[in-house]
Amino acid sequence: METQGSPESPTLGCVLTHLSRALDLGEGVPAGHAFRTARIAQRLAVELGLSEGERWSLYWAALLKDSGGSASAAPIAEAFRCDDVASKGAIKFVDWSQASHTTRFAVTQMGPQRSWLARLRYFAGMTVSPSRVLEEAIRVRSARGAGIVRTLGLGEDVARAILSLDEHWDGQGGPEGLSERAIPVLARVLCLSQTLEVFTTAEGGHVGYDVAQERAGRWFDPDMVRAALAFETDTEFWRDHARHAQGEPVELETPPLAESRESGAIDRLSEAFAGIVDAKSAFTGEHSARVARYAGAIAAYFELSEVQCGRLRRAALLHDLGNLAVPNTVLDKAGGLTPEEFQIVKTHARRSYEILHGIEGFARVAEIAAAHHERLDGRGYWRGLDADQLDLEMRILAVAEQFDALSAQRPYRAALPLDEVLRLLKREADVGIDADCVEAVHAIFGNRRQALAA
Hints:
Elements: H1 12-27, H2 33-48, H3 52-64, H4 73-80, H5 84-91, H6 99-109, H7 116-124, H8 130-152, H9 156-163, H10 185-203, H11 205-214, H12 222-229, H13 235-245, H14 263-278, H15 287-301, H16 306-318, H17 328-331, H18 339-357, H19 363-370, H20 392-407, H21 418-428, H22 435-445, H23 448-453
């Protein structure tokens, strides 16, 4: 792909804004939560007299603040035996710094099929308290989110804002138990901004401000709460907030770097989000990166153009974005899925499409990515496309995805030997998947050592 991008290429900010919606999915919050948090954070920064550089750091931090959250999904689902996505959304309305609130929340989140007595017995037998589980989840998500920011080269201020996002003014937050001005100023802004966003979007601005004032001096820097009160009655600002929550476009001031169309930066962001998706489950580690490598090798076999290869790679890296919305109770289930659970799984391809299709210049990437579970016989999902509707790039991705799915460990079976993987692909050739692509896999990966090194 071209290094500098073309006038039709998306900006880095546009890509991140839409990809942040995948993070919203994983956190169980309404779409656009991260974007609206960024608007509040920037407005609060103006009231506080922060520098332009600090405002730009808040932009990146707000949009990427939940980038480490996928790594905490499996531990939460396992410890509480709950829908991690729904639980993450629900806990944003809970004062989790108080142990009694955390325990009551955890008991409530267990599936409705369990009696209250069974839930209480389960938690009474836990060797680790619900509070400690959440503390560890915060530590994991904070460290991973900061690491992603550092990998992207967005600056230590952004990394520290995400690392300390859940620290509280009274020292009862995490992961380090920092208090008062030992908490980085950008983290203090972000902590208040995201809480205002959650409550305002769900229940109205008056509730958001009531919560902010009630937690001032405990969760929040009292000076920052006072600064936020300065724009409580700014009807235009909050009207735009409500419009965006309803799906209407709203402007957000962006830093110069966000206006970059440089392909390398967009590719690095795509790689980062592939890692975010794959961190959700122990069974999907490096899955998207491997699929991208396999798809690239098959594309080279067919001598696809540089533009096609670059587009296919992005589609491969981002094809499973929608999995962030799938609960780990389903994603990591060891037994067979119920029809209802399979319907949940099938939504991930559609969600990937919806996120990617909104990005300027990503229409083809979205089409390719969303077709990774389609079949030539029309029995795939999510659209039920058939051979006449599936082009070569879509067919390559489907085969690359299936090759990795068969050769990697899954919750319901061990990884299959390479010979068995190739046999199963051959059996599906020209029925569900493309025979020429299968032949390419045999040619490229037929030698066991080559496949393992890929």
